[in-house]
Amino acid sequence: MRKINKKIVSLVLALALVIGCAVTAFAGDFGYNTKDDGTGAITEFYGEIEDGVLVLDDEDEILGLPMTSVADGAFHYDEDDDALAYLADVTSIIIAEGISEIGIRSFANLPSLESVEFKGNVTLAPNAFEGCSALKSVTFDGDAYLGRYAFVNCSALSEINISDDASFDAEYGALNSTKWFADYTVDFVTVGTTLVAYKGHDEEETIPLNITKIGASAFEGNDTIKKIILSRYVDTIGNKAFADSALEELVFDNLGTITEVGTDAFKNTPYFNNYEGEFFIVGDILVKYMRNDVPFVIIPNTVKEIAADAFDGCYVSYDPDEYSFVISSITVPASVTEFGDNCFALATFPDGTTYSPRIYAYAGTPAMTALENAGYLVEIMPAMADLNGDGEITAADARIALRIAVKLDDADDALKAAADVDSDKRVTAADARFILRIAVGLEKYTSTDLLYMPKTDVELLMAYKAAVKKAAIANVGYTKTVSNKISDIDVYFQHKNKVKSIAEKGMVNTTDTYESDTQAALDNLFMPTLLSTSDIKSATNELSEGKYNITIVMNDYQDAYITLQTPNYTGGSSYIDRVMPVVSGKVFYDAISSNSWFKLKDNSDNLTPNCVRKYALTYSEPTIKLVVDAETLKVESIDLNVTLNFAVDGRVNGIDISSKGFKTGDGTVVRTDSVSFSDFQW
Question: What is the C-alpha separation between 441 and 452, in angstroms, rounded?
């Protein structure tokens, strides 16, 4: 048992306060430092330790001062320090509900410590319990967040208890050297519904359905994982969840909703580094802005949250004396209502201060309210296309836009953004022309329509995702029409039927059926988060009678091209397979390779009567057409069309497969596949 004379302690405290000494204060059971918020960080303990139990209360009994944390190294045992000798006999620690932060190495190397209980929500700093080799059990009665290596070298730790309704997360190495971790016999290490770590070495994994959170550092540094398929129940991705891993592709179940993405979740992964778009968006969250050369940035109007540090690093150059920036303003759309820490900061200076450009938002929108509540200084945007602010879109507004376009007038970023009605980050004559068409009644748009209407590639892609997801979740019925058609065939007549039979593989007669289970059908219709806007050839949206008419044309894609130099099929895993409900390239390849005449010609057998010299399959302009209610985003119809260009060059029974009228060359077939979803029964 350890006892301290509390009267002497109080006297010393009073003396310290009178003379203003810059020393650690102490009163009651604690020595403490005063934090910026006026609460105490425990640095020492002067109370009684009975039966090896160290109890840290969350309030000093003399002053009534709240204790909210344990300072760095406060109970770091050192056998050579006589003042810490009492710690050698501590077998159990109980930390009160109000103490929410445990500092770096606060309880490191306690030789006899066997159990710890946290009564409330708590965050453990890195290495908080490092080297407590006798520690066997830890109990969290509230939420817990473990910093890196929090329990490193706690080799006896075998039991982690957490209440059913509490959240849990742990950074890299927090538990990896414990018995609890070593005893895990499956690849997915979990606490509650959080994936704490992945112990496997596979290139592709599907996250189990019982997991709702990919925890901090869960895949960090994994050099084998390339593809992760998230179930619809995953809603959170933690700090550095995939950082420095080999991740190339993250597949989201299109019915799932990602509500939180932590800092540096995808840092230094191929998935992140190879992203070709301007906005790196996960779910509805802008995780990272990927450019630094656009003067005024307009965030897509389908984004609902901007993650912490989303714009960090968006400077052109830096030396010890000066940063260089191109971004001068960021326009926040009406849809954004959540903002992470320092989300608009382009850089953090060595002294800890940050630099952010001007922030614009539209008056009266949820975004403006949220920004003001978050303490941001915001400049109010003019209404879209109403450039003179008179409440109407008139020829005068078109004239202003035209003068900006031809550089007769200089305009600030806010006015440029309001004039940029096609959202291409430039004010051009096309914008002025469109505003004029609205002014004279040829286009029926209001400023509000232009504000909320998806226009850019990324906005249209996200709008399509939201519409399909809404229909699938609601399980509404619809009529499904499927049709396939051979539109052209150019093959020497003797082998026309052979080639045509392959091109017809998987075709069905036109069907028109009512489907009641939308979720089952639409689940596999489209996974938009698999796609980058770099896959889009063109995208347009027209507003007519309260409906968005969205057309998205994807890039052509060569699914297969097999020659003597590339003898193996490598297609079958394109975005086309995931977007369009057509027969995949793999089915075509299996069909042709199963024929007795299919044999790749080689140089040693020039006279083979049955052989293939070249085989190719290309998807041409896969097109998505969507009609959706502009206000509710309820689907009214979806039309999917793709043209397949199939070509083969070879011989059958010694006769060349070729185009008609030629001795050698490709025999070709053009086929069109169409699927329509209509008459949605909301």
Answer: 20
Tokens describing residue 375: 């303490």
Strands (DSSP E) found in 240-357: 249-252, 260-261, 279-282, 285-289, 296-298, 305-306, 317-319, 322-324, 329-332, 338-339, 347-348, 354-355
C-alpha–C-alpha distance, residues 552 and 633, integer Å: 17
Distances (CA, A) of 672 to 508, 623, 625: 12, 11, 15
Report the distance separating Cα 128 and Cα 107, nearest Å.
6
Element (H, E) at 590: helix 585-593
Please state, in angstroms and as integers, the Cα–Cα distance from residue 96 to each residue in 93, 168, 258, following that order: 10, 18, 33
* Pairwise CA distance, residues 247 & 231, whole Å: 17
Q: How far is CA 556 from the centre of its chain?
A: 26
CA distances to 9, 63, 89, 397, 603 from 30, rounded to whole Å, are 10, 11, 19, 68, 87
The residue assigned the tokens 């009641």 is 516
Q: At what angle do helices 429-439 and 395-405 cross, to 10 degrees?
A: 180
Distance between CA atoms of residues 416 and 414, nearest Å? 5
d(CA 618, CA 647): 9
How far is the C-alpha of 174 from the C-alpha of 180, rounded, in Å?
A: 11
Q: What angle do CA 204, 205, 210 make, to 5 degrees?
A: 170
CA–CA distance, 209 with 232 (Å, rounded to integer): 8
Burial 332-346 (b: 16+ CB within 10 A, else e): bbbbbbbbbebbbbb
Among 111-115, 446-450, 647-651, the range with the most confident prediction by mean pLDDT is 111-115
CA distance 471 to 463: 13
CA distance 380 to 119: 46
* Alpha helices by DSSP H, 332-387: 366-373
pLDDT at 133 > cutoff 60: yes
If phi over 0 gives left and psi between -120 and 50 gives alpha, with beta otherwise, what is residue 468? Answer: alpha
Distance CA 101, CA 671 (A): 64
- The strand pair at 30-34 and 40-45 is best described as antiparallel
Q: What angle (nearest 5°) sits at the alpha carbon of residue 177, between those of residues 173 and 182?
A: 115
pLDDT band at 587 (very low <50, low <70, confident <90, very high): low
* Phi-psi domain of 244 (left: phi exceeds 0; alpha: psi -120 through 50; beta: other): left
* Separation CA 16–CA 36 (nearest Å): 19
Give tens-digit pLDDT for 515-550: 655 555 565 554 444 456 677 888 899 888 888 999
C-alpha to C-alpha distances, 600 to 596, 597, 611, nearest whole angstrom: 11, 9, 5
648: its two tokens: 């083969």
Distance CA 216, CA 224 (A): 18
Do 92 and 115 meet the contact criterion of CB atoms below 8 Å apart? yes
Q: Would you state the pLDDT for residue 454?
A: 87
Distance in angstroms (rounded) separating the CA atoms of residues 507 and 525: 18
Residue 165 backbone phi and psi in degrees, to 5: -95, 10
Angle at 521 between CA 519 and CA 525, to 5 degrees: 105
Distance (Å, whole) CA 296 – CA 218:
36
Angle formed at CA 532 by CA 528 and CA 538, multiple of 5 degrees: 90
Beta strands in 73-158 (DSSP E): 92-95, 101-102, 115-118, 122-124, 137-140, 144-146
CA dihedral of 550, 519, 213, 156, whole degrees rounded to 10: -150
Q: What is the mean pLDDT of the chain?
A: 83
Q: Given the structure tokens 């397949």, which residue do they identify?
A: 644
